[in-house]
Amino acid sequence: MGLVPVALDLIGIFVFALSGALLGVRIQFDIVGVIVLGAVTGLGGGIMRDVLIGDTPPASFTDWRYLAVPVVAALVAFRFHPKLARIERYVDWFDAMGLGLFCVLGTVKALFFGLDPIPAALMGVLTAIGGGVLRDLLANRMPVVLRQDVYAIPALAGATVVVLTWEAGVFREWVLVPAAALCIALRFLAMHRRWSAPRASDLRRD
Amino acid sequence: MGLVPVALDLIGIFVFALSGALLGVRIQFDIVGVIVLGAVTGLGGGIMRDVLIGDTPPASFTDWRYLAVPVVAALVAFRFHPKLARIERYVDWFDAMGLGLFCVLGTVKALFFGLDPIPAALMGVLTAIGGGVLRDLLANRMPVVLRQDVYAIPALAGATVVVLTWEAGVFREWVLVPAAALCIALRFLAMHRRWSAPRASDLRRD
Amino acid sequence: MGLVPVALDLIGIFVFALSGALLGVRIQFDIVGVIVLGAVTGLGGGIMRDVLIGDTPPASFTDWRYLAVPVVAALVAFRFHPKLARIERYVDWFDAMGLGLFCVLGTVKALFFGLDPIPAALMGVLTAIGGGVLRDLLANRMPVVLRQDVYAIPALAGATVVVLTWEAGVFREWVLVPAAALCIALRFLAMHRRWSAPRASDLRRD
């Protein structure tokens, strides 16, 4: 990957690791647990993608920056969590940015590995939401992204832009920017307008 | 795989996805969560098997039918769940059929990949029960198949028939039918006679 | 691997499987669940390592002894658990031995597969704590090793000795013994002196 994608990837890892580490602090994990939960949240989605597409060992294990970033994020969360709590709204913003970055970067990687468009888009979504699902499993709570919140749909939208331009033969690296921006914008709207996806119980009145 | 094994595989995926999606509806997941839970239940066992035997990316990601079937199953569960609740007894029957199909198909695939008989049979059992275990993890409940019910043993019986005929050099594709039927029959018996495997507490009276 | 490493590996698997199976008995799993929980605890860390470094199918599936040992451990736990409860203190000792063996053996394997020192040490830690994390996920409880107890740090210490000697070019097979012994000694000290890693709440008084 070029320098820009790697930088975007590391930013995404940092913000996700921060969200995982903050959860670890809240549920009274010790510092080792906080680092593990942060690293799993930041790296888990990409690792699952790499294992599934057969790119082992995952990039996260062959590039020290991918390991250093979540550790730093976890230590920041551990030390400054009372201040971070005050800015938790901004953490949601960062999380949305991570979602946008991961869904497009994950999709592109899967396409480069020869996956078809639909599986590649799903790999992008997995990259984006996988870390959060693992975080919630380790924290012994039902995965937030499956239960509430419009979260996976913006990721799917960003991934779809990438595969459509790829299939049309007009994909260039800069496409990642508007594709990620679309995901981030949709996620912002979903948070601020409190969108929610339909539930089966909503149908009962039919 | 030939047309018949693929068709059996897709039927198994459909019924397992249905069971996962119905659980998602019951625990109030939104529609995205219901689709994810259905897909994980239908495809998870096969994906774990493929990752473990080194067949990546898993077939589920290279064949669109493997992705379409669980989505359709989830939408059916989402829309028609009040009617499905009335036929939940039949869902158990379908689930038993999925168990029988997956345990023999998973075993055969592992044998084709060069695994020894015992590991191959275990891969068959993993294919059959893995999706249900992942479903329960995501729903934050203890895996049903480990806690109650004679569920893994019928799968092991079906897988054993496949590896025995394979080792004896008399394996033909049609062997899958009686092997799956044995598993399904044992599972039916276990359900109707309320068989249960021994628990350690049962030994206390010794 | 030579005979000694394999023997050490099997001992580690046995004691970890025993801990998993005993938990299964305590939470009322039936005998199938007890065997599965024992096998996952004993083999899970090594399987995750093998999948991540790309060594599939994992050794556990190609060598019958790796499958037989956890089954025997589970049956021992199932049959003799009242007696084992009385010696639970010794189980902790065995568990510490498993930790020491797995962290150094996992690290060496990752180094042989070409991983860099830091990722290799992390693979050693994953090998040592991964089975216990999977055990706790299947038992639907928060992973003990993330929440309490100085557990991962001794494993990291043992793994560090291995990678340091490797990098210095002085690694020989016998280095595994003092490296594992360091981990085991630290774990014993942590248990007996009730060490605990810092928690973020401890910082509140700052």
List the helices and strands and how they pair.
Three copies of one chain form a homotrimer.
Chain A lengths: L2 H24 L4 H23 L5 H4 L1 H23 L1 H25 L4 H22 L5 H4 L4 H16 L8 H17 L14
Helix pairs in contact in A: 1-2, 1-4, 1-5, 2-4, 2-6, 5-6, 5-8, 5-9, 6-8, 8-9
Subcellular location (chains A, B, C): Cell membrane
InterPro entries (chains A, B, C): Gly_transporter
Pfam families (chains A, B, C): Gly_transporter
Anisotropy-based shape of chain A: globular
Unreliable runs of chain A, pLDDT <50, ≥5 residues?
Answer: none
Number of domains of chain A: 1
On the 0 to 100 scale, the average pLDDT of chain A is 89
Q: Helical proportion of chain A?
A: over 70%
How far apart are the termini of chain A? Answer: 51 Å
Total number of β-strand segments of chain A?
A: 0
Strand portion of chain A: under 5%
How would you sum up the major sheet of chain A?
none
Order of helix and strand elements from N to C terminus of chain A: HHHHHHHHH
Cα-atom radius of gyration of chain A: 17 Å
- Oligomerization category of the chains in this entry: homotrimer
Class from secondary-structure proportions of chain A: mainly alpha
Transmembrane segments (chains A, B, C): 6-25, 32-52, 64-81, 93-112, 118-138, 150-168, 174-190
InterPro entries (chains A, B, C): Gly_transporter (IPR005115)
Organism (chains A, B, C): Microlunatus aurantiacus
Family (chains A, B, C): Belongs to the UPF0126 family.
